[in-house]
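Loading example: each entry is read as two labelled lines plus one structure line.
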Amino acid sequence: MSKVDNPNPQIHEIKQTISETQRKKRDLLEQNEEIEDEIDQLEIFDLIRHIDDPEHPLTLEQLNVLQPENIKVNIDHKLITVLFTPTIPHCSLAQIIGLMIKVKLIRSLPRDYKVDVYITPGTHVQELSVNKQINDKERVMAAIENPSILRVVNKGVSNSDRLDNCC
Amino acid sequence: MEEQKEFVKCIGQLSGHTDKIWSVSWHPTLDIFATCSSDKTIKIWGLKENSENQYELKQTITDTHERTIRTLAFSPDGKMLACGSFDSTISIYALNNGLFEFISKLEGHEHEVKCVAWDSEGKFLASCSRDKTVWVWDYENGFDFSCYSVIDAHSQDVKHVKWIPGTNNLASTSFDDKLKLWEQEDDDWKCSATYSNHTATVWCVEFSKAGQYMASCGDDKQIKVYKKNENGAFSSPYIVETTIKNAHARTIYSLSFNEDATFLASVGADNTLNVYQKNMYVTTFEGQDNNLYELLEKKVNCHFADINCVAFHPSKDILVTVSDDRQIKMWSLKINL
């Protein structure tokens, strides 16, 4: 890569999203095959937190691009809404990051789920135009059929299924 | 308890595609329709023998496109089928002994082809693309297609293109939130009207068969119905008559008028089919807001995912819907008297 948009990003300490006891309780619940557990905020976060940033050897969680409180799950409408925060307001990779989040969730969730991905309001100069493109299903489908874009997306999501809590 | 009347009834479901189905088009006379999909196939479905409204798979066309097949349309004489793909090409098939055979590939668009449309006179085929242009292809010499004109139509992806019935004029919609009309002038088309009354991507424009109505829809979840302007003093060929706000809960992808414009159907990303019926009492009293079309029935979550296209049968009150859930559904309609 010739030029890096944000050469010195702030790396954030991974926050403990829930307490250790809560996490253990939740893990037990998830492992119990007899209980049909609903998809929740943290489950969605687990699916996307380890996506690699296209520019740095860091995850979207480490760069604070993704936070669990910016994920909304509407079970009745089977609708997932994710807000992501680019590290700098003129990041030229916002579109590809949005696409990676969208692709990862579409691939992981049941087919009847819908996924909306937006930039956290006020955090990017081209917020509206990026939002419009990553939520246009034709654009998304065409992008993932494009081998060079698909390569970048796959590289970002390829290592994102780790279950560990920390890097 | 009084039984609730059902005007829109599901009469069949067809499976076969293995990925999102994007588009459906009826043949003008043969009681067959075609569907296209991200599985890169085109499927032709026809009426079952000795059946009134049950359809079955008649033909599958493979290996003509490398990516999603987005759009398709039968020519007005029913002899040809045109399909447009995200691989930026258009393929043409000709009817031969009951089967559609590949005859030609039209190349020229720089990006994904989003829509194709034949004019009613049998002279032109129009196509539009993410490359912001509309191409007009001429095929007056039979199956020999050549580029007739390239229109720099919009500032963003052109989503949909349609011919205004009975004319050589076009309508196009775009990711730039606009709907534009184009009038033929010599060998070229000039913009005769720009509508900026949608606030987001306009996905579809449709005309009633006789051309008296135009309808548009899109990301702003509104349906607009326009009436042909018979008053020459105004420059717009069509004037907005009715706006249906929040017609769907998410993006509206497609609209269709039935043969005599009694019904208007809409589908979208909320997995829902809406059917509107023309208001029989359209005399407008002062201070009374009479919609040209009123909701007849809403089929909520009638597919498991986005519904991408809806199309009325050319002569019967039958509808087809196609979806990301890979299913095709057939619907029969009854008028509410």
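The first strand of chain B starts at residue 8 and ends at 14.
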